[in-house]
TrEMBL record, chain B:
The gene is mnmG. NCBIfam families: mnmG_gidA (TIGR00136). This is tRNA uridine 5-carboxymethylaminomethyl modification enzyme MnmG. It comes from Oceanobacillus bengalensis. NAD(+) binds at residues 273-287. Homodimer. Heterotetramer of two MnmE and two MnmG subunits.
């Protein structure tokens, strides 16, 4: 936290703009970048120069992106440390890949507001701004937490919880053997038992990382349902959202057309058009499964785009849909504004209890900007810079998974070497801690709680 | 009204395991010290288990010894049995445990402190402190004796407003029917200290003559002689075994049928008991599917027939205790000499203490031991020595001595207490230590002797021996790094006998020792023997080389931790003036008042963002100072 290591983060809002910048700061900023940079020798270029080249993934020798790299040496930089800025192609895939490569070479993912914090600590920012820096850290951290939580799929966190529980039980088992060597009610933990536990967890982590590599975790966004009666323009809405953001989605390598279409990134807000409550099934969801059931389905969505027809009066079905989404996060989209008005706007306003209402014409591509802004507003209150927040939490997850895997492999190596279990347990505990960081649970007291709930101990 | 009973540098109230360490440490550091106790016959008494040491706790005893304390020396003279635990596991978790001759331990300790220079011992019940302008200046006893001093250490254990509970019997009493201290805790509350109600318990003692040992399993001591203290040279070889038996369904039936009669289960609201030391009632209720529980029969000494029934701590009525005992194999005809009981008492909420164990509300007042919410003789003694050291140093105007979490279990214990507090009597467990590989039984001397010497508690002679050992370890490691072992028939024969893979190419002795199945003794058979080395040094060399990688990793973690510890929080910090701190964090910080960012980060409810903000604030102050 207050180390002088080299930090890196994406410093532009993801998904917006044609260019995304990865910024590094710290002693090794230049050397780390030059290790993965194909072009001029960055170690020897002049300060404050921009250099064209490619970022190479040294593990596969693949080109991650064509980039422009600015090299700025201390002290005349934002943080008063060596700073490198890598201009990547816009969109999240390339820039995330570049970031991951840098992290794998020893950079550490910056914490929210950390560049600003370093600038301050190195005396770059005026003292009077100390308060502002503190507020910034608080705001950014809180938002990063919120976004990270929102982004995390329920199944992912459930899986991580179950892996942690398994590790915790293993560790508690080792602990009980240590702290209560005479306690006879439990079989002494053996290397074989330890091997079994670590193997299972290791396989699960590898699976998660493979999935992450395919971009699935990266692309996990806010699960979003588009609902509305037939022919109100749901498909056009989806197509428009996808088209608007096409530059991003087509960059995902090796994914099928199906999956691509379900993912969009609107002004830094990643949306996942979810299958279960998504466009195909919701065609006539209420008719099909009733209000209560559809509420259940819709409840799993982070955001609902509820489409009405400007050209038709409110129907019984529309009202049922309103009932189904009450209390949930939704945006009302009144489509087909190019046609004659038959919808009672005052009534819609009244029953949508203060939720945003956007009028659009998908046909004429009008109102799309307003809609996108409404989506962004819903999740970022609109006025805060989305900065390095949205996807970083996902890169963070991957980093932590990798660390967890490494720690577990250290443990497995110890098992094969026949190291004592209490020593192997050190690495198992580290694995447990890394996994805990992913879901924001680092309470160290859990082990002791586990110990006393799992075993009957005492004098 | 009061009379002047004398002027001292340090007063220690209480003569239990914390008190004797505090008093001897202060006195040996040159402070004129007086120790006050309710009953001079109960010095360093063990009201519960006749046992010292065990995992984590045994390492604490070694640490106390390395700092120059007394617990290790006295138990080494008075044990009836000594065992090294966890020998099948790694070096980090091995620990000694001794069964003590309870009466002899107490007598030996009394004798030791009676002969201590600078230390006066008095019988007396302290009821009040003399406090002027928030500074503690002495104590007043019930006999109106006013003792004056620069610093006071309170180590009253479980005596404050204590109540003994057994069935529906309930009376004000300290452990073992000693007088309780009734007025002191009220007075501490008046002075602004927050107290909490805890409870613990003890099992019945039975007469050895009435036990049928043939129905139990013998638990002998180790054959190898060993001790806690680095100064012990003569070991007791005549050991007495313990015995193991089990409860059964009849025992459980007796307990279940009479659960409502147990003082702790009768429905009345009671203090919080420790999870790790549950009564037999707790065990039956919480783990009702367990068919049996272990019962260890531990002799209380050489000159007594009393046997401690470990595993049967209870607050059931005496009549039920008889039934319960008689249901256990080997104890069918056993006679209870003293019944078990639960005890409830006042403890000081330990987050009110600085890491020196000085209270925040009253300067120069220290508290140590079970009064701080811990349990166990070793935990008490570990706090006692630190409180004694810091009290004396404060009197002499010297800097405080605080052990960090990488220096010892004592550091872990005190940091946990003052930073996180505790909602049950706190017991040390190896899992509480993040750097347990560094906090080993075998290296307690390497960790703390230097400090003990600098404080003035380790003699020149012992320090010289320590330096010599340290040097020999380093030299031997260097030597092994230079010796090349080549594959040969003899060598591979030796390896084969040890179930180790044969050598294919030449290897450094150092690297060969890293293989898990190879120990120093085996290496010694392959190389020129260094006659200078003691077993102690050989063990150390073996451990340091074998676990080098893990030790290195742990040391790196420690370094990161220490960076945070080095960031000091200014004493006059005003948390209310720092915008951006979360409300919960602000409240906790105001209460705990951490000395460093490291300590702040361990407070539950203070998250990394709060630490960042705190850092910015602190650095801001420093930059501002420089700018001025």
């Amino acid at each position: 936290m207050m180390e002088t290591d080299t930090i890196a983060a994406i410093s532009t809002p993801i998904g917006e703009g044609a260019i995304a910048i990865v910024r590094l700061s710290g002693k090794e900023a230049i050397s780390i970048t030059s290790e993965v940079f194909k072009g001029k020798d960055l170690q020897n270029v002049d300060s404050h120069t921009i250099n064209y080249g490619k970022i190479i993934d040294r593990q596969t020798d693949e080109v991650a992106d064509e980039v422009m790299v600015s090299v700025m040496r201390a002290p005349k930089t934002f943080t008063r440390e060596d700073v490198v800025e890598i201009n990547c192609h816009g969109g999240m895939v390339a820039v995330n890949r570049v970031l991951e490569i840098l992290l794998s070479r020893g950079a550490r993912l910056a914490e929210p507001g950390e560049f600003t914090k370093r600038a301050f600590l190195n005396g770059r920012i005026d003292l009077s701004q100390a308060e502002a820096v503190m507020d910034l850290i608080r705001a950014k951290t809180d938002k990063a937490m919120n976004v990270a939580l929102k982004q995390m799929d329920g199944r992912l966190s459930a899986l991580i919880r179950s892996l942690r529980q398994r590790l915790l039980e293993t560790v508690a088992h080792v602990e009980v053997n240590i702290d209560y060597p005479e306690y006879d009610d439990v079989e002494e933990m053996s290397h074989d038992m330890m091997r079994e536990s670590t193997k299972v967890v290791h396989a699960e982590i590898e699976e998660l990382l493979t999935v992450a590599k395919q971009g699935k975790i990266l692309r996990e966004g806010l699960s979003t349902a588009i609902i509305g009666r037939p022919n109100v323009g749901k498909s056009s809405l989806m197509n428009t959202l996808v088209q608007e953001n096409k530059a991003i989605v087509t960059e995902i390598p090796g994914t099928t057309r199906d999956i691509i279409e379900e993912y969009v990134n609107v002004r830094g807000v990643p949306l996942r058009l979810v299958d279960t409550a998504g466009i195909r099934e919701t065609e006539d969801i209420v008719e099909r499964i009733g209000v209560e059931r559809s509420r259940q389905v819709l409840k799993d969505s982070d955001l609902i785009l509820f489409v009405l027809n400007y050209n038709e009066e409110l129907t019984e079905e529309d009202l049922k849909l309103f009932e189904a989404v009450r209390g949930l996060e939704y945006i009302v989209i009144i489509n087909k504004m190019d046609l004659e008005q038959k919808l009672d706007l005052a009534k819609v306003d009244k029953i949508s209890d203060g939720k945003p209402i956007v009028t659009t014409s998908m046909l004429k591509e009008e109102g799309v900007d307003t809609l996108e802004k409404a989506i962004a507003d819903t999740f970022f209150s609109g006025d805060i810079d989305t900065g390095d927040l949205t996807y970083v939490s996902n890169v963070r997850h991957i980093q932590l998974l990798k660390k967890a895997k490494q720690a577990l492999e250290d443990a497995m190596e110890g098992i094969e070497l026949g190291m004592p279990l209490d020593i192997i347990q050190i690495d198992v505990t580290r694995t447990w801690e890394f996994l805990g960081e992913i879901i924001g649970d680092t309470a160290s007291d859990s082990l002791i709680d586990q110990l006393f709930s799992q075993f009957c101990l005492g004098k | 009204m009061t009379y002047n009973a004398g002027n001292y540098d340090v007063i220690v109230v209480g003569a239990g395991h914390a008190g004797v360490e505090a008093a001897t440490a202060a006195a040996r550091m040159g402070a004129k010290t007086v120790m006050l106790t309710l009953n001079l016959d109960m010095i360093a008494f063990m009201p519960c288990n006749p046992s010292i040491g065990g995992p984590a706790k045994g390492i604490v005893v070694r640490e106390i010894d390395a700092l120059g304390g007394v617990m290790g020396k006295v138990i080494d003279k008075t044990y009836i049995q000594m065992r090294m635990l966890n020998t099948g596991k790694g070096p980090a978790v091995q620990a000694l445990r001794a069964q003590a001759d309870k009466a002899l331990y107490s007598r030996e300790m009394k004798n030791l402190i009676e002969n201590e220079e600078n230390l006066t011992i008095r019988q007396g019940m302290v009821e009040k402190l003399i406090v002027e302008d928030g500074v503690c200046k002495g104590v007043i006893t019930e006999t109106n004796a006013a003792y004056h001093a620069e610093a006071v250490v309170i180590t009253t254990g479980t005596y404050m407003r204590s109540k003994v509970l057994m069935g529906d019997l309930e009376y004000e009493s300290g452990p073992n029917n000693q007088r309780p201290s009734l007025k002191l805790s009220e007075h501490l509350e008046e002075l602004g200290l927050e107290l909490v109600r805890f409870k613990t318990g003890t099992p019945p003692r039975v007469n050895s003559h009435t036990i049928d040992y043939s129905k139990t399993e013998i638990q002998p001591g180790d054959e190898k002689t060993q001790g806690f203290s680095y100064e012990t040279t003569a070991f007791i070889t005549d050991q007495i075994p313990c015995w193991l038996t089990y409860t059964n369904e009849f025992t459980h039936k007796v307990i279940n049928e009479n659960l409502g009669l147990s003082a702790m289960y009768s429905g009345a609201k009671r203090g919080t008991g420790p999870r790790y030391c549950p009564s037999i009632e707790d065990k039956i209720v919480r783990f009702n599917d367990k068919p049996r529980h272990q019962i260890f029969l531990e002799p209380e000494g050489r000159d007594t027939e009393e046997v401690y029934v470990q595993g049967l701590s209870t607050s059931l009525p005496e009549s039920i205790q008889h039934k319960m005992i008689k249901s256990i194999p080997g104890l069918e005809n056993a006679e209870i000499m003293r019944p078990g009981y639960a005890i409830e008492y006042d403890a000081v909420v330990p987050t009110q203490l600085w890491p020196t164990l000085e209270t925040k509300v009253i300067s120069n007042l220290f508290t140590a031991g079970q009064i701080n919410g811990t349990s166990g003789y070793e935990e008490a003694a570990g706090q006692g020595i630190m409180a004694g050291i810091n009290a004396a140093r404060k009197v002499f105007g010297q800097d405080a001595v605080i052990l960090d979490r990488s220096q010892g279990y004592i550091g872990v214990l005190i940091d946990d207490l003052v930073t996180k507090g505790t909602n049950e009597p706190y017991r040390l467990l190896t899992s509480r230590a993040e750097y347990r590989l560094l906090l080993r039984h075998d290296n307690a001397d390497l960790r703390l002797t230097e400090l003990g010497y600098n404080i003035g508690l380790i003699s020149e002679e012992r320090y010289g021996r320590f330096i010599m050992k340290k040097q020999r370890v380093e030299e031997e490691k260097k030597r092994l790094n230079k010796i090349i072992i080549k594959p040969s028939e003899t060598i591979n024969q030796l390896l084969e006998e040890a179930d180790a893979a044969p050598l294919k190419e030449a290897v450094k002795a150092y690297d060969l020792l890293k293989r898990p199945e190879i120990n120093y003794d085996l290496i010694e058979q392959m190389i020129e023997v260094n006659e200078m080395l003691s077993d102690d040094v050989k063990d150390q060399v073996g451990i340091q080389i074998k676990y080098e990688g893990y030790i290195k990793k742990a040391k790196e973690q420690v370094e990161r931790m220490l960076k945070m510890e080095d960031k000091k929080v200014p004493e006059d910090i005003d948390y209310d003036a720092i915008s951006g701190l979360a409300t919960e964090a602000r409240q906790k910080l105001k209460k705990v008042r951490p000395l460093s960012l490291g300590q702040a980060s361990r407070i539950s409810g203070v998250n990394p963002a709060d630490i960042s903000i705190l850092l910015v604030y602190i650095e801001h102050g420093q930059i501002a100072k420089v700018a001025n």
